[in-house]
Structure formats: structure tokens, C-alpha cells
Fold these 4 entries.
Entry 1:
Amino acid sequence: MESLEREAAYFFHTYKRIPLEIERGEGVYLFAKDGRRYLDMFAGLAVNALGYSHPGITAAIAEQSRRYIHLSNYYLQDPQIQLAGMLVKHSGYCKVFFGNSGTEAIEGAIKIARKWGSGNGKAEIVSFTNAFHGRTMGALSMMDRKKYREGYEPFLDNFRIVGFNDAQALAGAVGPKTLAVVLEFIQGEGGICPVTTEFADDLERLRKKFGFLLVADEIQSGIGRTGTLFGFQHYRVTPDIVVVAKPLGGGLPLGAIIGGPAVSEVLEPGVHGTTFGGNPVACAAGIVVLREILDRGVMGNAAAMGKRLEAGLKGLQKEFPQLVSEVRGFGLMLGMELTREGETVVTKLRDRGILLNCTNEKVLRFLPPLIVEASHIDETVGQLREIFRTL
Ligand SMILES: Cc1ncc(COP(=O)(O)O)c(C=O)c1O
């Protein structure tokens, strides 16, 4: 494929590209340049919640880009204000800061926590093994996996990583000096690993005891994907800071830090900012994303279709216990752990017209558009069954 050769020539070698050239996308489907149609079951890694070429999103982008594409954050911009208002209304939180990506939202959350803790003796940030928070140095300082960290040392000071779902390790790690605990309630890149209810309860108890901030990384799990606005809503916790990104801008780069009362007055003019963050075109798309997901039933669909997919995958686990060791997750954020590496299955599925992602070597990761229908779920489960029969 000529494009692959040119890619190898021109780019830093950071991405392992799928050998597929896409012409266009529509709904849950991608169409390759050779005319083949693919059902996309991982939706641009959880970005394309409303699928491709959503008419509401394309219209909002066209309309806003005719008004203005960029002004700078010196100006009041109604798409930003409207989107922030929707986030505040639906989340029950009080403040929003818009950035451009997930990792940038994580960095901002670290900065807010540091500001909050400056002067009160709290400094240490606790995170968990197997986490993924992004690629910037603050995010990497909270991650333990070698493949992301190796060669980038030294990392930031006052970060401590403890065992995921290990309540005893957490209890041993937090104390009066703990500034914040940063957590994906459902680890995404790490293989769709949810926090246990007991662990979440212990975390909440420790937070009350020591008064640290709880930061939920909802970049992959947030905005309706798990059948609730945020993944942490499957637990009895209320984080102080929530970070979202991926689906928020309808495919345009947009992230947000959403803060509760504990941190609402921490920032003042000039202490944090961004040139592009809260781009008005991205925010105009985001308004459509939130409207569809929260007001027009798409989140309900995610919950219902998630149940159907989970049941289908659990059925496969029963049929093929030698191949499938576990099915886990919430809503349309599901993982199927195999007893072998999953890339072969991904390739075979692609040959059958379905796109899926494998993470952490053995976990098939299902992150379809939230508008997916029963027939798409059944098709995916059916094709997986056919493939498993050949293995
Ligand atoms: C949970 C989580 N946090 C942070 C990030 C980083 O987001 P971005 O790639 O937009 O910087 C990701 C991206 O996959 C993620 O899944």
C-alpha cells in the first residue's frame, strides 16, 4: 500500500496504522477507498459517540465556522457558554475549564489540585497501576506501565502509584499529606477493568478521613458511554474534579475539567489558560453531542445496547471457555479478555467487515458509537462466534 510506505517515510514512528484507507464515514459505518464497508465497533477510540457524519454535528460545525472559527479566550463566546451550562446542569458540578485533549485536561486537574493544596501541606498525588491518563509528563508521572514511560525519566515529584483495586495498599499509601487520588473508575487502555464497589467505598471512606481531592478520569468512560453521564456514577462516590474529552467535541479536539465546590474558587485570572481550548466550532459540535446523548435518548440506547452486547459476549464466554476468560465493563464500554493475544481475532473480524480494537494484548475492547443498533450488536457477536469456531 503506497500510503503506508509514505507514512513510514514522513512520520515519527509512533502509530501502528491499520492497513486501511478510509474514504468516508456514515453512521456506524466506515467506507474504505476500495469500496468495502466496515461496521466500526470502536468509534475512533470512543470519540465518535454519534457515529460518522452526524447531520446535527456537521450542520453545527458549518454554521459556527461561518460565524467565527477562533476568537481567543479574551472574548465571551456563546457556544462555550452554552456547552459549559449544559455540563454544569447535567453533572450537578459548578465550574468548567475547556482544553483541547484528554491529557491536557489531566494536566489542568493536577494543577488545580496543586493550587488547592498549596499552603495546606498536602502534596502527594496517588494513582494506580495499569492506569492510562495520557502522554504528557504529568499524566505519565501517574502511570506505571513501562511501554509508556521507558526513556522519559525523570518524572514529576510527589507522585505515588498503588495497586489498582488493592484497598490495603491504598490505605497504606494515603494520609494527611495526600493531595489527590486520580482514578479511572473503569480503566480503558488498561483492559476495561472496573473498580470494585468495595474499593470505591474504601476510597470514599479514606477521602472523608484525610480530606484529599478525588479526581475521576472520565476521558474514555464519560459522556454517556457506560449508560450514565459518568462512569463513577456506578459507584457511591462524588469526585471533586472530573475530566472528560474524547466524545465531547463530536470529533473535534475538546476536553474539559469539571469541578465541584471544593475547587470552584481555586483559579483566578491568568493562572491557567490555553490558546485553542474551548474552540467555538468544537463547542458548537459539543452542544449537539450533549443534546443527543443526554436529552434525546442516546444514553438510554447505550445502556440498552450495552446490556445486549454484554449478554452476547457472556454467551460466547460460555460457549468458548477455553478462549474467553472474562467479560467486563459497563454500558458500551466492554472488554472481553481472551486466553490468547487478540490481534488475530481483530484481523479476522476486519476481513469480515467489522472494526474492533485490542488493548493490553488479550482484551478485545468494545467502544461502539452510542447510536449502535441491535442488528449491529448481533452481527458482531455472530461474526465473533464464527471466528472462535475456527480457532
Ligand atoms: C482514560 C484516559 N485518560 C486520558 C487519555 C488521554 O487523552 P488524549 O489522548 O486526548 O490526550 C485517554 C486516551 O485514550 C484515556 O483513555
Note: Residues 101-103, 106, 132-134, 184, 188-189, 217, 219-220, 245 surround pyridoxal-5'-phosphate (CB under 6 Å).
Entry 2:
Amino acid sequence: MKKKLNVGLIGYGFMGRTHSNAYSQVNHFFDVPYEPVLQVVCGLEENVAKDFADQWGYKSYTTDWHKVIEDDNIDQVDICVPNNMHAEIAIAAAKAGKSIICEKPLALDAAQAETMVDAIEKAGVANLVSFNYRRVPAVTLAKMLIDEGRLGRIFHYRANFLQDWTISANVPQGGMATWRLDVKAAGSGVTGDLLAHCIDTAMWHNGQIDSVCAMTETFVKKRMHVETGKVEDVGIDDACTFICRFGNESLGNFESTRYARGHKALYTFEINGEKASIAWDLHDLHRLSYFDHSDESIVRGWRSVHVTDGDMPYMDKWWVPGLQIGYEHTFVHQVADFLEGLDKGEPASPSFRDALATQYVCDAVLSSAKDKEWKTVKKA
Ligand SMILES: NC(=O)c1ccc[n+]([C@@H]2O[C@H](COP(=O)([O-])OP(=O)(O)OC[C@H]3O[C@@H](n4cnc5c(N)ncnc54)[C@H](O)[C@@H]3O)[C@@H](O)[C@H]2O)c1
């Protein structure tokens, strides 16, 4: 008999759907010790919350997140709301003794993230931040190859996250989905939204980032605000590029923008080591490019590894070799690892403290761009 884990989901938007799907699917594919029970969903609009509850099988719905926290029947709170609400909800959930999965970025800034880590660690509750790209099998395989020493000494880590959806000055700030353009709701622009993913994966692969030098730009400086109806200054970074030094002395090069015409969600990274290199592309997420310098020269070249075999990360749980999986599965992996960790008392990463480390890099990047100088990154 599996133990029941009663879940309260706060936020029924994009991430609310990916997380609900993960809870629904996890027991079909993974032999985890818990059975998540979708108890209550919370969102701003009552009729949407009701429809969402019906569609995904939640037993009830509410428009008041406090009710989710106050409900003694809820074991786990899942936070899928805009960034400015993460801290208040997570701290309240920790005080109520709930386990927590929180969407990224952890907070609006590092100061706020510190208060969250403090509350979570004081309460001793299980916690995880949803940097889901770590759990793309090809990205996890990259981590395995690095940890096995196949790349040898690492010289370069390069990552891009490119989009093009805010080029028009008519895209508003504030409101559903476009809250990302409102600095009060998002904290920052592409740095916290997109580069945070690249930074989390990079530090997981290649260790601590010690110092950064960045530039940012806000191409459209005024936008209509959905909530006030007025044209207001835009406070977020539309584009950000930074270079950095890792603790292992390798060099990093990161770029993110929402102004790369033609790119919708092009997350790529390449890692160059002494013995081998690795490259990955979200648009082809089930493949890992690998170059091994020890290959015989007449057949040496970049291989495209189709990450579908049963001995590759997570793939024994899905179909048969040759058949690939996609984006939504990363959230299933996340929940599966979280539930395993919950049972064994060995928390799955990234924890709130790991996400604080990413937040320190984001803060250093924004402050470097503002002051036009190198910044040292605080350690979590
Ligand atoms: N891991 C990823 O790849 C990834 C991708 C997208 C978004 N995110 C993160 O997920 C979070 C949510 O983003 P999204 O794209 O799902 O946003 P969204 O705009 O699609 O949904 C936001 C939800 O928050 C709810 N909400 C807003 N204010 C509320 C309130 N006061 N009380 C209750 N509910 C409220 C809305 O009703 C809506 O359901 C953000 O932190 C974002 O950065 C992560």
C-alpha cells in the first residue's frame, strides 16, 4: 500500500498544468512510495479554478491560497504562481509543516530568498525548486559523463536561452502570463526567468560560479500596464549577456533575450573539456552531442547520442529503446525524485538553498550590469 500525499496546488496556469500532469502520471511509470492525491487547486478566478479542478481531478478549488495552507488535510503545497508570491506562500507553508515544491526563480531577489531558506530550514520541511531542465534525460546524462571524468578538465561552459515574444511594443506588462514584464511581479526579466535555468544547470554540471561581468538592455522602455491601464516604465531586463569564472577556473559565457527573432525557446549549452565536449539543444532535447578526442582520428567527430536506451537516466521507466520522451516528462521525473527523497529522508535537489545560490548569481549579474563592473558572487 502506498502512502497518500495530499497535494494543494496554488496557480493553475502553465506550470500548474505541468505539475498536475506530473502528479497524475508519476505512479503509472515510477515505483514511488507515495500516491499524490490532488486535493485542492487555488487560482485567481473561481470559474477557471472549478474547471481546472474538474479537468485534472482535484477534489476542491478555492481562490484564497491561505485556505490551502490552513487545511490540516494538505501535506504538500505546490507553488505555481508569479514570483512575487513565492516567498509569502512558501514561508506560511513551511510554518504549517507542509512539504513544498516551488517554481523558479525562488524569489524576487536574494534577500527575499534568504528569508525563505531560513524559514524552510527552521521548519525542517522537505523542499524542492522546479529547475526542471536538470531532469531532461540528456541533461542528466551530461552530468553523469562530467562526473565520470570523461571531459577531463573543463575549460568552457556556454549557455543561451533565446526567445522572441516581446519584440512588439504592444505586448503589455502585468496580468496573466505578461506579469513577466512587470518588475514588481517578476523581480527581473530574462535574468530570473530564463538565465536562472541556465545558471542552475551550469552550477550543477560545473560547480560554483565565483564572479560575473554582465550587460543588460531594456529595448522597449514603456509598456501599457494591464492592471493600471496606464503606459508605465518597464523595469525588467529584456536581454542579458554575462561572462563569468567558475570555481574550477573554467570560463562561462551566457546569453538570454526575448528579442532573438525566430527563436521561441532555444535553450542550448556546450561544455568543452580537455578530453571531450558536450552540447545540448532544447529543440532536440532527447539528443546529446558528444565529441571524444580519444576516438581513432579517422572516425573522430561529433556523435549525436539518441538518449532513449534503458541504461540512460530515467529511460528504463518509459517506452522501449528508440522511442523518445519530451518536455512534460521532466516534471514527472522531478516529482518521482522528490517522493523518493521524501521517503528516504534524502532530499532531491535543487533545494531552496541550491536555488539561493542561483539567486546570488542572478543578483550579481544584475548588479554588475548596473554598476558596469565585475562582481563577486556570494556563496549559499
Ligand atoms: N520551470 C519552468 O520551466 C517554468 C516555466 C514557466 C514558468 N515558471 C515559473 O512558474 C511560476 C508560474 O508561472 P506560469 O507560467 O505558470 O504563470 P501563469 O501566468 O500561467 O499562471 C499564474 C497562476 O497564478 C495564479 N495567481 C496569480 N495571483 C494569484 C493569487 N493572488 N492567488 C492565487 N493564485 C494566483 C493565476 O490564477 C494563475 O493560475 C512562475 O514563478 C514562473 O517563473 C517555470
Note: The CA atoms of residues 275 and 294 lie 7 Å apart.
Entry 3:
Amino acid sequence: MRPFELTAPATLDAAVTTPGTYLAGGTTLVDLMKLNVLTPRHVKDINDLPLRGIDTRDGLRVGALERMSDVAGHPGVYPVISRALLLSASQQLRNMASIGGNLLQRTRCGYFRDVAMPCDKRRPGSGCPALTGANRGHAVLGTSGKCVATHPSDLAVALVALDAELRLAGAEGTRTVALADFYRLPGETPEVENDLRPGELITEVVVPRLDWARRSTYVKVRDRASYEFALCSAAVALDLRDSRVVDARVAVGGVATVPWRLTSVEEALRGAPATVEAFTDAASSAADGATPLAHNGFKVDLLKRTVVRALVEGSRA
Ligand SMILES: Cc1cc2nc3c(=O)[nH]c(=O)nc-3n(C[C@H](O)[C@H](O)[C@H](O)COP(=O)(O)OP(=O)(O)OC[C@H]3O[C@@H](n4cnc5c(N)ncnc54)[C@H](O)[C@@H]3O)c2cc1C
């Protein structure tokens, strides 16, 4: 790890107007600094800032510094969000890691995390070895010739399904962006992962009220039962009346370069009976547009099956 200067701004204003990289729980940042993937000269510990609070009175508002474990355990939080958090990382990490940091964690692509390897995301123009190398865990949706790394956050998948927004603060003031618009596809510039402007901070996550999201769940398929990132995951919420789907939200993770909303599946579900057969029909378009690599073709089928499983579990919730 390289030497760096650590400060702890006392106000939001001081935080957004001084140079440096934000440190919340540190479970991603310190990791990547130890690997020399990130080498910031100035690190700003934001833990003294007033970015706390969980409010479930009208939808959900969560301060960016709330810990994953506190949000997961809050009784008013939509089940799909609690579940996505509880299936993330480990209890120790969830006790430390913040909601804002979770949404800004970096990909777990082995080539990105290994500074001895080329990586267009870490060193633009150096190439993407995952295209032809060890790509079993990589994305099949939203990829480009420069990057096939998956987006790692489980929480982001649940939040995209629920139309969540981020409140951001910067030197020029505050603004709100839809989480679905916040993340960028890699395209020709995989190093640009989101819409955050220099110095900007996530202050709060806002989930609009959706009463029927009380019937929701998150299914995560991975190589081992805990402490592991998703090979594929699905967040669903279902509005059911008389055993028919009135409305649905579906998003998937572990298969795409950004959290991936499946509006075609949602459309196919509206008006359908809440049966395995109808869920299977609706999920048939889930992998449309997928471009599998040599070792991750299994994700195409896995994606459809994970969506069906999540719909079945969601319909019984
Ligand atoms: C072994 C292991 C397993 C894991 N498994 C999972 C998993 O299964 N699913 C999953 O979703 N995650 C998983 N994680 C990732 C973990 O959830 C993240 O490391 C954590 O959520 C990051 O939060 P943090 O507060 O520690 O962020 P930090 O490490 O402090 O920061 C992460 C990044 O976000 C920036 N940042 C932090 N807060 C803000 C803010 N408010 N505004 C602007 N920028 C900010 C930092 O500058 C940094 O770039 C795992 C991590 C480890 C180490």
C-alpha cells in the first residue's frame, strides 16, 4: 500500500470541496488500496458526516452511511432489500459496510484486481483478458469489446427493481438521479462506471412507496452458500390478486455489467396467472440479447431459471 493522507471532514461542505477519495466502511477501498488497484493520495473518512437514518414511513429513505446489517434488520424495509443485503458478504462485513459504499463497490473481476494484468477498466487501452481468458463468472448482458465484468452489488439489483433514487451532494449543490440511470454500460469507456461527478457524494437512497413490494424476494445463486458473489441473482416484487399478476418488478444481477431490469418479463407477467408455467413463459425473454463467452454460456439458462425460482418464491411470500 502506498502512503496517503487521511482526513475526516466535519461537514458536508468541507467533504465535497476538498480533494480526495471517500472512505466509509473501507471494506472495498482498503482492500483495493492494499492490492495497489487504487492509489489515492488523499483519503477522506466521511463517518463523522450526518448521513444516517432509516425512515420507512413513506417508502424508504436510508442515509448513505447506514450499515448493511442495520438496514437488513430494520422491520420496515421491503423484503427484497433485506434479503439482498442478508445474502451479501458476511455478518462482519455487513456490520462495517455502508449502503453508499455498497453501491459504489468495484467489480470482482480477477483481472481488474490484479495489477500485473491488463484491464481496460483499470488502465484504459491496455485490453481485456477476460474476453478470451477465465470468464466463467463474467457478464453475458451489457458487455462490450472492452469490458465484460459483472456489477457486484446485490443491493443495487433490489433497488433498481424498486425504482430507487440517489440523492447526491457536490460543490455545485444537490441533485437526484434514478439508480437505473446512474450506472453506465462499459461501452468504449469501462473506466467510467457511473454518473458521479468529481467530488460528489451519495447522501441518501430513496425508494418510492410501493405497498405491494411487501410481497417480494431476492434469490441468489452462487458457488457456495455464503460469503460469495452471485453467479446469478433475481429480485422480484409481485402484485397478486385472485392468483393473477396485476403488476411485477424483476431485475437480475451477476449476469450483467450493471444491475439489469427485465421490463419485458414484467410486461409478460401482467395479467398472467401466478403459476410456474406462466412464470416460465414470462422468463423466456430474460436473456434476450445475451452474448456468452467461452466459459459462461451456462448463465443464459441459469438466468431464466433463477427468475422463475424467484417468481415462485415471491408468489408464496
Ligand atoms: C469478502 C467479501 C465478500 C463480499 N461479498 C459481497 C456480496 O456477496 N454482495 C455484495 O453486494 N457485496 C459484497 N461485498 C462487498 C461489500 O458489500 C462492500 O465492500 C461494501 O458494501 C462497501 O461498503 P463500504 O462502506 O465498506 O465502502 P468503502 O470501501 O468505504 O467505499 C467503497 C467505494 O465507495 C466510495 N464511497 C463510499 N461511500 C460513499 C458515499 N457516500 N458517496 C460517494 N462515494 C462513497 C469510496 O470512495 C469507495 O470508492 C463483499 C466484500 C468482501 C470483502
Note: The pocket of flavin-adenine dinucleotide is lined by residues 21-29, 31, 64, 68, 88-89, 93, 96-98, 100-102, 104-105, 152-155, 201-202, 227, 229 (CB under 6 Å).
Entry 4:
Amino acid sequence: MIRSRRDFLRSLGVGTATGAAALHWPAGNISAGLSPEMARAGGPGGFILLNNSENPYGPSHRVADAIRASTGLANRYASMKENEVRERIANHCRVKPEQVLLGCGSTEILRVAACAFLGHNKKLIQALPTFEALEDYAKSVGSEVIRVPISRNFGHDLEGMLSHADASTGIVYVCNPNNPTGSLTSRKDLQTFIPKLPATTQIVIDEAYHEYVIPTGIYSSFIDNPIDDDRVIVTRTFSKVYGLAGLRLGYAVASPKVIEKMRAFLTQDSLNSVMAEIVGVALDDVGAVEEAVKRNHDDMQEFLNRAVTRNLSPIDPHTNFVMMNIQHNAAEVIEHFRQHKILIGPFFPSMSTYIRVSMGTPKDMTAFWQAWNMLPWSNKVMHH
Ligand SMILES: Cc1ncc(COP(=O)(O)O)c(C=O)c1O
């Protein structure tokens, strides 16, 4: 995952000082909800973006309309709306407003969790590989980070994680479904695991991709089906299925005491005033979320079919991206796609022959496979 806009520009070979002004965002595919000027599917320099697990179609028609109707609020802080947004989300999650913390994306929630529960002499335990934002923040506050390789079925190795947990463990991070593998960790195993953690350890369950999980017996959200344990912090976001990554709203659900502890480290007034206005519309548009999930499922199925005919081994995805073994050095393949103006997920050293591909529009994915077919060895893989 590219961590900052500066890194992103650097990854494109563009200097931040002079390059930014020269960049333009060409109109790409027209999304379901936005006008052509607003629906910019391509990134700077016309890159097809299959790298950040965004929703390539953007927000729903209703949400897009609400965004357009709210642009007049751009000059206002959203402070007066904050309680209302928190109540709206609390209602959605069936919890009390004092159990909800709003963040500038769920990334901010991960940052404030690090500030509140990590630091020198406090360690973070997480999977390898997993989403790395919390790890970065943990290091920035001086924490040691223990990375426990995922198990053979690509779920978290909870026993392994537990074996490292002691009184100095500030946070155990469980990303479920996991990024970058798209895999699930079983609810039953988590429920056995959590009570065994030290009393002073928080467990952060990152449910950024929750909505994409097609109901299955092994998965259950810790917001929808909470357990009575003050150590649990669940994070969610509007960046994925809602198609609102750029408007930056994520949230945590936890006990009021834990929320208060994290609140002290929040950026003040970070709530986006347009987002504050439209969040209710997004949450009410249940049909649009269902449609987005179905569309992702269809796009994914199409992708998996094409991958399997090429003898590739994708990890069963429960997300809007897929990690697959290409049996070649992934760094070279990532660079190959970049040369063809397609950005895919970053290189994961612990899974050096895997690439992570976020679902794009059908047109994006056609471009992906065209570029794939240009790999010098792609035929060999196909006819193995
Ligand atoms: C697992 C996971 N958590 C959190 C985030 C952060 O998303 P945001 O800050 O946009 O809510 C991402 C983004 O890719 C993610 O993959």
C-alpha cells in the first residue's frame, strides 16, 4: 500500500515539488453515480489503479447527488455535525454514540490506537503479511512490532500470536478479512483467542472489507455480533464498498472508556463537511451497498475464471482485491504492469511470488489481462 501522496508520486517517478502541477487527471470510465468530470477512474498520468482496493465505480447515484448538493459546505467546519454523524453511525452499528469514534479514514483510528495503547516498552503483535498502517504508527511511537506469519490457510496464526503476548503487549491487530491476502480468520478461533489475551492488551479488529464478505459460517463481524469484552476495538471505513475513499471517513466501535482514551489523540476538526452531510444517505442506501457487493462478486468471478485458465493460484478472496501466486518474482511483474500504465499492489517480501490485484471496472480488467499476456512467459504459465 502506498502510504502517502508523496510516496505515490515518487512511485510514479514524479517529484512532488514540480511534478504535482504538471499532473492531470484524465476522465476515465464513467462511474454509475458521478458525472464524467467527477468520475476520474484513472490516476495521475492515466494510470489504471488496481493498487489500493478502492471501489472503482465510486459512490451510488444517491450519494453522488448528495455530494453535489453539499459542495456549498466546503467553507464550513463540520464540528456542529459531529454528534449527528456519530449518532447515525452508532445507530447503524446498534451501539451507543459514546462507543463510536470518527476518524479521518480508519487510518486515523489506527494512528490514535497506537498513540493510546503503544509506545516504548509496549509491543504490537500482528500478522505477516497484513495491512501496515498500524505497524508504521507503532514504530513511530517507539513500539516493538512482532510479525507472526499467517497460517497455511492464509488466516491469522492466532496460537502463534498468543505465544508472543504478555503484559507488555499493547495491541494485537487482526485484519479480517486480511489485506493483502483477502482471507478470513475464523470467528470461532477468534472467540477462543481473545479471552486468553492479557488483561491489558487491546485487540484491534480491522473490518475495512467487512461488507464484501459473502455470508459464511466461519466469519462474523465483531460489530454485528459483539462480545462483552472492553479490550475489543473494531474499525470500519467508508473507503471501500461505499466508494468514498477520498472523502476520508472511518470509525471505531469500542467501549466508551477505550473510545475516550483514543479521542485524546484525534486530529481536531478532521471531519470532512461534505462527508458529514452525506453519511446518512450512504448508510440509508442499503440497496446500493448490496449492488456494489454483487458487482464486485461478478467482477471477481470473471477475474478468477481468467486467472485459473492461466494456471494461476489465487487465494480465495473475501474482498475487492485478490492475492495470487504467479510463480515468478512479483517485483518484476509489478514493474511490468507499471510500464503498461497499470498499478497493482506493492511487493510483499514474505509472499514474493504473489501479486495483489484490486478489482477495477471490466475495461480496467481487460487492460490488465492484455498486459498480462505481454509477459514473456505468460504463455508458458497458461499451458503448464
Ligand atoms: C485493512 C485496511 N484497513 C484500513 C485501511 C485504511 O482505509 P481508510 O483510512 O481509507 O479508512 C485500508 C485501506 O486500504 C485497509 O486495507
Note: The first strand starts at residue 48 and ends at 50.
